[in-house]
Fold this protein.
Amino acid sequence: MSKLLPAIELETTAQPRFAVIWLHGLGADGSDFAPIVPYLGLPEDLGIRFVFPHAPAMPVTCNGGYVMPAWYDITYIDGINRGVDEAGIRASCEAIRHLIERENERGIPSRNIVLAGFSQGGAMAYTLGLTYPEKLAGIIALSGYLPAPALLEPALCQANRQTPIFAGHGSEDDVVPLALGQQACQYLAEQGYPITWFDYPMAHSVCPEEIANIGQWLTERFATAAA
């Protein structure tokens, strides 16, 4: 991976004070969620830079070795169990860290940054957000899961023990089963993380109700960060 991932950037105002780094799912790219910004219903005076990075292309074993954008390889899928490439997860965490650091260099502190992701991107948002050594404004995991608890548990950082988490999932999801998302939510709740769970009558997707909830949640998070 190059040091800085290519990305699409959208700013709601000039000189934004906040940032959302939004990670796409397996086989997609940064353009997948960029169109969602106008539908979040964010206040006009809330200056946010949205960063939608593109994952590198790699062979994905569970998809027959087909080369596609991915944050890490998935070696097998068996019900709610997945085999994942932990080295790939570590490499993607490092690449996404560079994006957070670039926002810091551009004047947005980590405490004003939300890390968000969908599906495999949600798995990355969980993994990096919970292990990042500086306080973040929040974590959003949409149709996500914890890909490698054995990798995560030793690296959990106190800085984000109280960071709010938004977890949304489709009740009819046949790609990342609802039970897998619930498993992640239950684990984090038992560990004392302030996680809020939402489920929606949809498949592996997002819906208008979820988008509205995300917008309200982001508004509240950044209002708290600015206080």
About this structure: The first helix runs from residue 86 to 105. The CA atoms of residues 81 and 180 lie 8 Å apart. The longest strand covers residues 18-23. The mean pLDDT is 94.
